[in-house]
């Protein structure tokens, strides 16, 4: 059971995201429902650790088993989602991931994978390209250049 609920057009999510970087590019994705780029990851399940959740989500979405380098941020964000128009209160932990032993880079600059009935389109986005892309989370457009050395709590209002 995912840790999420909806009440009166408001939605709470507890999520994890994988920050996968190679050659000053970050791996981003979108699916058939989302016109914007976002990071691999997903909701934490009841009784599951965030560390297990981020590895599980990457395995489900990318068919690889990454290693966690370190957690970067716990981001508390408050926003209205562009597609479903619900008001979100989301807690997301962002992890820097190591994919060096996975063969992921062999898939190319752009590739498509399937997870059940969902189509995931992945693309390696150059850091400088993030400013001009329809990309979430917004804070990463600038913070990608200065990843924290220690776990940092931050808050984002959109």
Question: What is the compact description of this entry?
Answer:
By secondary structure, this protein is mainly beta. Helix content is 11%, strand content 46%. It starts with a strand and ends with a strand.
How many runs of DSSP E, i.e. beta strands? 10
Order of helices and strands: EEEEEHEEEEHE
Shape: globular
Largest sheet: 6 strands, mixed
Strand content: over 45%
- Ranges where pLDDT stays below 50 over 5 or more residues in a row are none
Radius of gyration: 15 Å
Helix content: 10-25%
Count, helices: 2
Question: Your description of this structure?
Answer:
It is a single chain. The protein has helices spanning 50-62, 140-143, and strands at 4-7, 10-19, 21-22, 25-31, 41-43, 67-80, 87-98, 110-115, 118-126, 152-157. By secondary structure, it is mainly β. The radius of gyration is 15 Å and the shape is globular. 23% of the residues are buried.
Give the arrangement of secondary structure elements.
Layout: E1 4-7, E2 10-19, E3 21-22, E4 25-31, E5 41-43, H1 50-62, E6 67-80, E7 87-98, E8 110-115, E9 118-126, H2 140-143, E10 152-157
Parallel strand pairs: 2-7, 6-10
Antiparallel strand pairs: 1-2, 2-5, 3-4, 4-9, 6-7, 8-9
Keywords:
single chain
């Amino acid at each position: 059971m995912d840790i999420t609920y909806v009440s009166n057009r408001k939605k709470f999510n507890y999520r994890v995201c994988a920050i996968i970087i190679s050659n000053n590019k970050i791996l981003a994705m979108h699916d058939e429902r989302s016109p914007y780029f976002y990071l691999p990851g997903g909701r934490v399940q009841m009784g599951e650790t965030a560390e297990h959740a981020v590895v599980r989500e990457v395995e489900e979405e990318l068919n690889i088993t990454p290693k966690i380098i370190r957690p970067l941020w716990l981001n508390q964000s408050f926003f209205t989602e562009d597609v479903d128009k619900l008001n979100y209160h989301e807690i997301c932990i962002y992890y820097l991931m190591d994919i060096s032993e996975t063969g992921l880079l062999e898939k190319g600059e752009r590739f498509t994978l399937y997870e059940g009935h969902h189509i995931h389109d992945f693309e390696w986005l150059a850091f400088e390209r993030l400013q001009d892309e329809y990309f979430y989370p917004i804070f990463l457009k600038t913070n990608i250049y200065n990843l924290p050395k220690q776990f940092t709590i931050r808050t984002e209002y959109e």
